[in-house]
Automatic annotation (TrEMBL):
Signal peptide: none annotated. GO terms for biological process: regulation of DNA-templated transcription. It comes from Rubrivivax rivuli. GO terms for molecular function: DNA binding. SMART domains: HTH_LUXR. Residues 123-180 form the HTH luxR-type domain. InterPro entries: Sig_transdc_resp-reg_C-effctor, Tscrpt_reg_LuxR_C, WH-like_DNA-bd_sf. This is LuxR family transcriptional regulator.
Length: 204
């Protein structure tokens, strides 16, 4: 089961009411970097900004009452929505455990994951140049910005976009990005090597 959760490209954590982390999947370990609104200090989950502390703990307290919350943390490009979901916790008597675990699901900070884009590009036969264009479009770049970064004419990029749309059947750039955004996750096969050094901490 834990291995299956590591194949999901949404960060997922199980925490207690006082934000002690008992489990986090591989995606969560990657997400909780220095720029994320949430930080992992030992086994404790903390809000990076002081103004996010109250919303986080209010949501965790609500989860203990069986209430779901969607909280927005951080600011600017690092703003992230976090789904706070109470987990059932039956005791031996069949009653609900008052110290139930809470599931946190981290929203993404980018629409399209690079591995998913690359896998999709291979599946529809995009060239390496077209794949790079697709990656930038999915990151929000406009054709002119893509051209400037590559040092080519805008007309060249527009030709590549036309080829991408033909191969994918997308009627517009917006539809193209939507196709990639709804792809199932494709997580790197080498992820275990990166986590081998971090054996301490919450269970994965």
């Amino acid at each position: 089961m834990l291995g299956m959760l590591d194949e999901i490209d949404y960060g997922m954590l199980l925490v207690t009411a006082d934000a002690q982390v008992s489990y986090l999947n591989h995606a969560a370990r990657l997400e909780l970097d220095g720029d994320h609104p949430l930080q992992l200090l030992g086994n404790t989950l903390r809000a990076h900004r002081a103004q996010d502390v109250a919303p986080l703990y209010d949501a965790l307290a609500a989860a203990q009452r069986g209430l779901r919350r969607l909280v927005t943390l951080g600011e600017g490009t690092q703003r992230v929505c976090v789904s706070v979901v109470p987990m059932p916790g039956p005791t031996a008597t069949g009653q609900t455990d008052p110290a139930r675990a809470t599931l946190l699901v981290l929203g993404k900070r980018q629409v399209c994951e690079q591995l998913s884009v690359q896998g999709y590009a291979r599946s529809v036969g995009l060239t390496p140049a077209e794949t790079r264009v697709l990656e930038q479009l999915c990151a929000g770049a406009r054709p002119g910005e893509v051209a400037a970064r590559a040092g080519v004419a805008v007309s060249t990029v527009r030709t590549q976009i036309g080829s991408i749309r033909t191969k994918t059947g997308a009627g517009s750039i917006r539809e193209l990005v939507r196709q990639v955004a709804v792809l199932p996750p494709l997580v790197g096969a080498l992820r275990g090597l990166g986590g081998a050094a971090g054996s301490a901490g919450p269970r994965r």
